[in-house]
Amino acid sequence: MAIRIKTKEQIEGIRESSKLAASVLKYLEEFVVPGNTTKYINDKALEYIKDHGATPATLGYKGFTGSICTSPNEVICHGVPNQYELKEGDILNIDVTTILNKYYGDTCKMYAVGEISDNAQRLIDVTKTCLKKGVEECYPGNRFGNIGYQISRYAHKKGYSVVWQFCGHGVGLKFHEDPEVSHIADKNTGKRMRPGMIFTIEPMINEGVAEAVIDRADGWTARTRDGKLSAQFEHTILITDKGCECLTDVYGEY
């Protein structure tokens, strides 16, 4: 299918939803502490999203019960908020997608719960750099495969694996649109980027093997096959005439 080119009006709506999604992640920082459950954090996120006139895209999506995804330690993605109680040394990914005035914004980041190990911090740092490597490839005329090529090249160089079972995606008018954005790809492959395209880049980087296993209990939670740590960062990206705009960057990092 063709990749949607968004209009100026649509871009502005998606920009506002993206800012809101990112502000949720910032708001939740104070609640990611030892003793709080992922369900409690989920409830705080839902309250915040509703107070800002939006709804969470994940709630009820194909049966998903959370307003956000909460993925601690060996959970790669799609963790269902529950009674898991955060403890000192955990790492946690929170993934938020908001629907504001029918437009979608999608982002995620890693949190350290108290003091974490050097290994955990290094994984987080490398994963964040992987996302930056991907964003650097976002400009008109470049091919989508170069995003995954640069991400996987850097991760492998640092001794980590890249999850291939999940990918980034077009977003904005729907939760998931074309194109699929792979985080491991051959150089100079895929369709070319054009101004007005909006999509996510969301590399999932593992300490050990790349494979994910889905929990049978909830049908959603994806864990590393070997039980080792995983980390993920995500931004919603707009291709502009001259390069790109990171729509979910409320920390001023891009």
Name of the CATH superfamily:
Creatinase/methionine aminopeptidase superfamily
CATH architectural category = Alpha-Beta Complex
Mean pLDDT: 97
| CA gyration radius, whole angstroms | 17 Å
How do the helices and strands follow one another from N- to C-terminus? HHEEEEEHHEEEEEEEEEE
Question: What structural class do the secondary elements suggest?
Answer: alpha+beta
How many independent structural domains? 1
CATH topology: Creatine Amidinohydrolase
Principal-axes shape call: globular
Helix content range of the residues, please? Answer: 25-40%
Q: Poorly predicted ranges (pLDDT <50, ≥5 residues)?
A: none
Largest sheet: 4 strands, antiparallel
Give the DSSP E fraction (strand runs of 2 or more residues).
15-25%
Query: Any idea of the CATH class?
Result: Alpha Beta
CA(first)-CA(last) distance = 30 Å
| Count of extended strands | 15
Please describe what this structure looks like.
There is one protein chain. With 254 residues, the chain is of the alpha+beta class. The chain has one domain: Creatine Amidinohydrolase (Alpha-Beta Complex). It is 26% helix and 25% strand. The protein has helices at residues 8-28, 38-51, 118-135, 145-157, and strands spanning 55-56, 69-72, 75-77, 91-100, 103-112, 161-162, 168-170, 177-181, 198-201, 204-206, 212-214, 222-224, 230-232, 235-239, 244-246. The strands form five sheets. Strands 1, 2, 4 and 5 form a four-stranded antiparallel sheet that branches. β11 and β12 form a beta hairpin. α3 runs antiparallel to α4 (145-157). The longest helix is centred in the N-terminal third of the chain and has 21 residues, at 8-28. The chain starts with 7 loop residues before the first helix and ends in an 8-residue tail after the last strand. The mean pLDDT is 97.
